[in-house]
Specification:
Elements (H helix, E strand, L loop, with lengths): L1 H25 L5 E5 L6 H17 L3 E5 L6 H8 L7 E6 H10 L7 H4 E16 L8 H10 L5 E4 L5 H13 L4 E4 L3 H9 L5 E5 H9 L4 E5 L14 H4 L7 E9 L4 H16 L1 H9 L3 E2 L4 H22 L5
Parallel strand pairs: 1-2, 1-3, 5-6, 5-7
Antiparallel strand pairs: 3-9, 4-7, 4-8, 4-9, 4-10
Helix pairs in contact: 4-13
């Protein structure tokens, strides 16, 4: 009986070895679902659609961006973690859902390192702290000075508790030793409407979304969370430049696949990603939305993601910040 079982296992392995390369050669032969775990209109959505537009040209198949929201970024991310690993369901992953969630939630339904394989990272950027144009506080020192004198009076928006916007402001608030009121929204668009109407004071949003509104004069930029000034917003200082707090937070994003995706498909995807990122026109488009292209090899990408998960898990737990 044992010999028969071993023979069956060997036969199955042989079939898989033959089938997988053939399957990969025909891939993709139908539309691909690209899951964005945040609502339309925000930074995640903007960057994902930029990548989807280019990659569907390269692959010759439609890439349908699906905004699968709920539980912050957890619902959409977990959906991909549990999807059939056949190369037809992608995740737009970044700092928020891949790194921050690992430190914020003890009962996270997925493990960023065990359940996903990074195809590649496309861009790195920052958050820009904005306020309405007629707000009395025009720079970060004035914001913190007012907050110290008026605890709990200033409000700040985010796309949800535990989101990158929330963490950027919460850490800044804690380092400055002030108390503000967090107002979570179901996406960036609703938050901007209330900022401009004066119903909420501040919003530390992705620069990819904030840039156009700042340049158009719709909102006022106070500071960016990058390590150095951005070419896209060269007149806006970094947090470190203000001398108020020593803090930098840079967002990053790219494509992730379920961990059990066949290696030939994963390899093909990485080749297509590298081709996309090597194109100067694509790099310029990334810079055009206030981000910087990330040109990393596969080993560098794997190490970067692992380091970010470990770094933020430790930092958030040490700070006592949770998404609950």
């Amino acid at each position: 009986m044992r010999g028969c079982t071993n023979a069956i296992v060997a036969l199955l392995c042989l079939v898989c070895a033959i089938f997988t390369p053939a399957f990969a050669q025909s891939w993709p032969d139908r539309a691909i679902k690209f899951v964005v775990p945040q609502p339309p209109g925000g930074g995640f959505d903007t960057m994902a659609r930029l990548m989807a537009d280019r990659l569907q040209q390269q692959l010759g198949q439609s890439i349908v961006v699906e905004n699968r929201t709920g539980a912050g970024t957890r619902a959409g991310t977990d959906y991909v973690a549990k999807a059939v690993p056949d190369g037809y369901t992608w995740l737009f992953g970044g700092l928020s859902n891949i790194a921050l969630n690992m430190g914020l939630y003890k009962d996270l339904p997925y493990d960023s390192l065990a359940d996903f394989k990074p195809v590649g990272l496309a861009m790195i950027g920052s958050y820009t702290l904005i306020t309405r144009n007629d707000a009395p506080q025009k720079n970060f020192a004035e914001v913190i000075s007012f907050a110290k004198a008026n605890p709990g009076k200033l409000t700040y928006a985010s796309a949800g508790k535990g989101s990158g916007q929330h963490i950027a402001m919460a850490v800044s608030e804690a380092l400055a030793g002030v108390q503000m009121v967090h107002v979570p929204y179901r996406g960036a668009q609703a938050a901007y409407q209330d900022v401009m109407a004066g119903r909420v004071d501040l919003f530390f949003d992705s620069t990819a979304t904030a840039k156009a509104l700042v340049e158009g004069g719709t909102v006022h930029a106070i500071v960016v969370s990058a390590r150095k000034r951005l070419a896209a917003l060269e007149k806006v200082p970094t947090l470190n430049e203000t001398g108020v707090i020593d803090f930098a937070m840079e967002s990053w994003s790219g494509i992730f696949l379920p961990a059990k995706t066949p290696e030939p498909i994963l390899s093909r995807m990485r080749q297509e990603m590298a081709k996309m990122m090597a194109d100067s026109a694509m790099q310029q488009r990334i810079r055009g939305i206030g981000q910087e292209p990330l040109l990393l090899g596969q080993q560098e990408t794997d190490a970067f993601v692992r380091n970010e998960v470990e770094r933020w898990t430790k930092q958030l737990r040490n700070a006592g910040l949770t998404g609950e």
